[in-house]
Amino acid sequence: MVDLSFACIDVSSDPYAAGPTLVFRLRVSESTGERIHALGLRVQMRIEPQKRRYTPAESAKLNDLFGDPTRYADTLKPVQFAMASIMVPSFTGDIEVDLHVPCTYDMEVASTGYFHALEEGSIPLLMLFSGTAIAKGTTGFSVSQVPWNLEATYLLPVSEWRAMMERFFPSGSWVRLGRETLAALGAFKNTRALATWEQAVDALLAEASRPTELLP
Q1: HEC string of 114-143?
Q2: Cβ of 79: how many Cβ atoms within 10 Å?
Q3: How many domains does the chain have?
Q4: Are residues 196 and 89 in the same domain?
Q5: What is the span of the domain harbouring residue 196?
Q6: Looking at residue 137, what is its pLDDT?
Q7: pLDDT on residue 138
């Protein structure tokens, strides 16, 4: 029976991907000496927010996710980040492979809001592994499932995520709007003869910040 273990040893961003993509370098090890003919691997990635400290500025940005810092003991629960899969080629002993994880800048996604709120330090990640291993022994092939209890941790630098997003969305981010809201914003933009959507939002914010005139 095969005996597998996993570790994440590095991360980088793919500069040639069509969209923001983190590349996690995984080391896969098999300790019995059997040759792994193929390994279909699935990886569930979670953020473990309870494993780091937060500045007051970060806590303010995370209020919609976790509430007031006085409640962090109850509200700092794992946040789903990604699901990814990879086919690991044949190996004996150890092998290193790259796991590509596409990312989004949609601020309605909890993990994106969490990443965006952080200013420095690292993001504690937990990787949970599953899948199917096909081993080639002296008596033929054997098939076994990757145990669900196999996992690995990794500290993703906030700077790596920020640099990746800045490369794909320089000085910008994304907010999803409903069709009716977008149509209303478009009508406002056209009425005011504003050149960009950002100018339309700026105009609305400026109007909202003006003091209300007192009625006589």
Answers
A1: HHHHCCCCEEEEEEEEEEEEEEEECCEEEE
A2: 18
A3: 2
A4: no
A5: 179-209
A6: 67
A7: 66
